[in-house]
Specification:
single chain; 134 residues; mainly alpha; 3-stranded mixed beta sheet; 6 helices; 3 strands; 46% helix; 10% strand
């Protein structure tokens, strides 16, 4: 199924963040059995909208505080944050999912976190960063 989805997707926008080759990789990922060197589990916890705003602002503060210490140190500090996936409760119907990892990606998109810094964070999380050729 993963192979069919991969072939159907526009390759310019593909990012494979799953360990492949195992039976039911999605289930392994959701149950936390994918072998990784990081200790962050894949769980969901409730979070109020106010707590979400505080956590989102905390990500920006962490980036600002870690910046002077250098890329390697910053990446390790960012990777050490609580990266739990939260179900954020809001006034509109239904929650939305968010993690500090999303906050870091948003900060990179806004230019608050450099691309090399974000890549170093991903590598500290035991991710493989593959840069497009053009």
């Amino acid at each position: 199924m993963e192979e069919r989805a991969e072939k159907a997707a526009d390759q310019r926008f593909c990012l494979n963040r799953m360990a492949g080759g195992a039976d039911a990789p999605l289930m392994l990922m959701l149950t936390g059995l994918v072998p990784r060197s990081r200790s962050h589990g894949l769980v969901s916890a409730p979070l109020s909208y106010e707590e979400y705003e505080q956590a989102r602002d905390g990500v920006v503060e962490t980036i600002a505080q870690a910046r002077p210490s250098g890329v390697t140190t910053q990446a390790a500090e960012l990777a050490g944050m609580d990266l739990t996936i939260y179900a954020v409760q809001r006034d509109e119907p239904g929650p939305f999912m968010w993690s500090r990892r999303d906050g870091l990606a948003e900060a990179a998109a806004r230019g608050e976190l450099g691309l090399k810094d974000f890549a170093a964070f991903l590598e500290a999380m035991d991710e493989t960063v593959i840069w497009p050729e053009d």
